[in-house]
UniProtKB/TrEMBL annotation:
GO terms for molecular function: lyase activity. Homotrimer. Keywords: Carbohydrate metabolism, Lyase. The keyword Lyase applies. It comes from the Bacteria. The keyword Lyase applies. Transmembrane segments: none annotated. Gene3D superfamilies: Aldolase class I. This is 2-keto-3-deoxy-phosphogalactonate aldolase. Belongs to the KHG/KDPG aldolase family. Pathway: Carbohydrate acid metabolism.
Length: 201
């Protein structure tokens, strides 16, 4: 079962990346991003993509330039997530055959991202518009638009966000913090999966 959850591994290092990735996959999450402000992020992406690219959608977060899009592709990544809506990054991502999830906050940014070819929208930080804001924006978005809430959305309020029409979530520190061991990540990831499964029942 593929759940609409993206594990955000900010701060992960190459030596631990594959073990952390394995723990997350075993827990039932198969979408993973390494933010580019992590140590040697392209090495981590390359290692995870080589080991688990056939089982998971692996890529980068905090992607701010077209040069970085190219480096993600070279590392074997298939997912590009940004905190902002840069149409050049979106177009470069789609040209390289990868999924594009730009960060948006307003209807203007939502439509700009979709026009550039984004696969889905990352409402970030979601705590600012909140569930009510996302529900209001959904009324004007094209049918079928995928909307993920990131920042302020998590296992404690999955149900509230889902009721407001969120399709999925990006989960950062609740699933991984620098220094966490694979067993720590496994425990947290399983709890998040259980909370999500309960919320969608």
């Amino acid at each position: 079962m593929s759940r609409p959850l993206i594990a955000i591994l900010r701060g992960v290092t190459p030596p631990e990346a594959t073990d952390i990735c394995a723990a997350i996959l075993e827990a039932g999450i198969n979408r993973i991003e390494v933010p580019l402000n992590s140590p040697d992020p392209f090495d981590s992406i390359k290692a995870m993509a080589a080991a688990y690219g056939d089982r998971a959608l692996i890529g980068a977060g905090t992607v701010l330039s077209t040069d970085d899009v190219g480096r993600v592709a070279q590392a074997g990544g298939k997912l590009v997530v940004s905190p902002n809506c840069d149409q050049r990054v979106i177009v470069a991502t789609k040209t390289a055959g990868m999924q594009s999830w730009p960060g948006v906050m307003t209807p203007t940014e939502c439509f700009a991202a979709l026009k550039a070819g984004a696969d889905g929208l990352k409402i970030f930080p979601a705590s600012i518009p909140g569930p009510d804001g996302v529900k209001s924006m959904r009324a004007v978005l094209p049918p079928g638009t995928l909307v993920y809430a990131v920042g302020g959305a998590g296992p404690e309020n999955f149900a509230q966000w889902i009721a407001a029409s969120a399709d999925g979530f990006g989960i950062g520190s609740a699933i991984y913090k620098p220094g966490d061991r694979p067993e720590d990540v496994s425990r947290k990831a399983k709890a998040i999966v259980a909370a999500y499964d309960q919320a969608v029942q």
